[in-house]
């Protein structure tokens, strides 16, 4: 038996357990590949102080085979580092640093390359350029999983250098190497600028492309929300090209690296740090190895541990380390500095959410930094209320494609799984209107049945049955799987949204046309697994989430209550106006007073009594009268058509116009006396 035992490399382990990294099915594998490459591109651009521009191209090359290409305008990668970054698992610069970053383990993009090679046998192709006048480096490589090392396949094992300028562009074209050579012009008539530097990775893999929840399309859309400073160009397998233009030219400030905090170090790690330290004294070890430990704090720790501050670090054994560990826990030490994390910010949250999610009310809140197990973190929440559900935004052709692509067994399941925020009640409403039945298979619908379903999706008001749409983020990266296991989803469901004007059954997400995004920024996000799909349930983290959710909830509640008050006063005014003419005529008949004079006086009284019907808000959500509304900042209100606003409020379709005016226009028509 001893002869059969051998050690295995980390790449060999994950090759057999790739589900742990997010490659457990073809659809998820495509998303994980795109996600890891885009995350690396964003980190590289931000660290170099470059406004990111990213090109994503997904192309179908055969049945269940796809080619994914991701290019950025980052600083490029040094030639000797390229094979190690893309062909060696657990190789990177982020694992050892305590600072906020998207990637942490150095395992993402190399794992995607390993999966691609395992499923198609085709090598990873990388092009990287560090300057306009410098050559581009081109590599084709594979991972030797037995030893976790890259194997370079082109250029006699050393890659190829592509010269700069027109000669290099011609070489790229002749060899069929994929590379976007120029930026798109920012304005019509402007000459496109050449791309001076950047990196492109191309992988052929076994995958499945499907729209809807958990898709590449959704991931890129959510990435644009949390990163308003990025421009994304995306070509999907059908050849459709779309771009998410940056809504901000401001790069997030660079996070600062910090030392570990004493509260976040466990006993075994403390023993290892003592053995690795080059400091001679115990006091010097404590002050140089940890953040927030001054000489006076180090002396307090040593005194409580009954150890000398001059004790040699190399002489510390396990018993001494245990005394030291207990003393650290018993000593009051300030929280670590928070410049190691960079939140998105309320203004940027509002810009990002508004650019992607159409709604009428937006609110954002950023909590002060907090600490869990010695690790700084910060919670941000943004909320959008109003707008149509996704079932009312698609075209009939897109619906046919979605029905053809789906794995759902029934139309009801298809509706719930494909469209964000569409709950079971809303799906049942659509099915009842279409009369298709609950067991109908989406792949077997006839053209006439598809037309009926499309009409029902467009016309049925599903606001009441619509479930809250949740966007989860960790260090600006969207989390799209394992919703039920994530602390973010659990905390949202545990929050009492009924007090903020939304309907909610116990233990479930609230109902209504609401989109909410929750972002955790931390030097070390506590994911539940290596696939980085869900945040673990730490009490300190959930507490901060709950407080941030309550902050935006209060702002939403204020908005809904004020809007309902406007509606109630508008209804009162309509009742007054309905009978004013008859009252004026009756008074005129009794005392002979002019009917028009009486009518104007009564109308003036009606306006005064229902003045809140004329409440107008500016762009930031504040009332024109500053005493009428104060949301406390972090709010954006978008003007909406009165008919749409009233229809959303009372949960009914917009009423048909009569005599050239809608009913709501008549309610607010005050003979030209009101402000424009």
Automatic annotation (TrEMBL):
The record, for CDD domains, names: TopoIIB_Trans
Q: Does the keyword ATP-binding apply?
A: yes
Please provide, alphabetically and separated by semicolons, the GO molecular function terms listed in this UniProt record.
ATP binding; DNA binding; DNA topoisomerase type II (double strand cut, ATP-hydrolyzing) activity
Q: Which domain of life is it from?
A: Bacteria
Q: What's the top EC group for this one?
A: isomerase
Q: Where is the composition biased (Acidic residues)?
A: 666-676
Presence of keyword DNA-binding: yes
Q: Which Pfam families match?
A: HATPase_c, Topo-VIb_trans
The entry's keywords: ATP-binding, DNA-binding, Isomerase, Nucleotide-binding, Topoisomerase
Self-association state and partner proteins as the record states? Homodimer. Heterotetramer of two Top6A and two Top6B chains.
Q: Which family does it belong to?
A: Belongs to the TOP6B family.
What is the recorded function of this protein according to its Swiss-Prot or TrEMBL entry? Relaxes both positive and negative superturns and exhibits a strong decatenase activity.
UniProt name for this protein: Type 2 DNA topoisomerase 6 subunit B
Q: What organism does the UniProt record list as the source? A: Blastopirellula marina
